[in-house]
Design brief:
The protein is an alpha+beta fold and 120 residues long. The protein is built from three helices and six strands.
Length: 120
């Protein structure tokens, strides 16, 4: 999804935070259901990324568990964009080919994500 940040536009995959007592894969399942109203399957763990980031002028420690998965509702792949409602906030999710992040100076976060995907 596209996010406007003080340093410019950045893109991040759908997902969210892990709730206390929840495993990361279960959190991904829950988040995608909440955001896209569909389930996922064929879930594969790719790895994790650890970054210290400046978010809204506050230093934060971020640990991202990265998974690849397929959407159960396949017609969503044919949409140019999808409106996402997440905890009262609205975002637009877009399908952007990974190669665009390599060639068009688009910023994919968290840092190191593109390299992790390429290495998988």
């Amino acid at each position: 999804m596209r996010l406007n940040h003080s340093s410019g536009t950045v893109y991040k995959p759908l997902g969210g935070t892990v709730e206390f007592g929840e495993h990361t894969e279960a959190a991904l399942q829950r988040e995608i259901i909440e955001e896209l109203k569909t389930e996922i399957h064929t879930v594969s763990y790719l790895g994790f990324l650890e970054n210290v980031i400046n978010f809204n002028e506050e230093i934060r420690h971020e640990i991202a568990f990265v998974y690849e998965a397929k959407l159960a509702t396949i017609h969503l792949y044919n949409l140019a964009s999808i409106q996402v409602d997440d905890a009262g906030l609205r975002f637009i999710a877009e399908w952007i080919p990974l190669n665009n992040f390599r060639t068009e100076r688009l910023t994919l976060v968290p840092e190191g994500l593109l390299e992790l995907i390429d290495d998988s």
